[in-house]
Specification:
304 residues, single chain, 14 helices
Length: 304
Amino acid sequence: MDSEKNILKDRLFWVSMLLSALVLCVSLWYGFTGDQAIYAYGAWVWKKYHLAPYLGAWDGSFPGIFIIHRLEMAIFGESILGFRGFDCLVQLGAAGMLFWVAKKISGSSIAGLFAGSFYSIYYIQDGFWGVGQRDGFVFVFLLLALVLGLALEKRVWLRAPLVGMLAGFAFLIKPTYGLSWIVFGAWFLYEGIQGKRRSVYGEVLVYSVACFLPSLIVALCYWRMGHFDELYRLVVLYNLKGYAGARSATPISDPSLAAFWIAHSMGKEQPLILCSGILALFLKLKNENRDAAKIFWVIFSLVM
């Protein structure tokens, strides 16, 4: 499918971006929630008084979200509107990437139009509480990792470190998304073995090192400042104790029934996602295109 290479010349791409922008700009009128206020305050103290997170402002969240807010303040200033505008542009980029992925899988610009537009509607329906949260930024990083993984398929030595660092920063925002490391690593390993590349293990090694690189950089920065202990106690130790003592949100003790509980929850709360997933699985079973099947299973694994 050569058509996805000329996405900027695709009229439906710009229609999708326009529709997505109209939907996403609603968030410009949203205020701050408690979480966002904490993150913004930590970033503001960092900018104003040069006190990094966990020194000038206390919170147990991983440092990635503070870095994002600090970047936003450097670009758009210290206002709620600035943050909402920043998030709007980031999510508009996600809508554009979804157009590209959907078109690559299906070969149809219509599919890209629906993918980008529906994502914008789904994102904005979370309201001021859910828009601009950590999961939304993690999604963008993982989606960009997926796009680069596909676009740089023939430039594996560039793909491995870029995708690794993106997945590594997703972990730095919310540690549970460290599971994505396994998905991308398995993808690259399988693809390399299937292609009989001698360098496949070297590629996976470079990718693995890149996954740890963002966390290593943050740890070294705190160590150089002489505040590694604060980072360890508030990020690592605090979260380990918190997650160890937390109860499961799934009232199912038998792991074999967990899938049924997930399907029940999605069917009740997000029927559009569940129905779309079932339709995608049906189309995949009928589609013999190997590239489309590969992309499907990578996306399916990331969702799970």
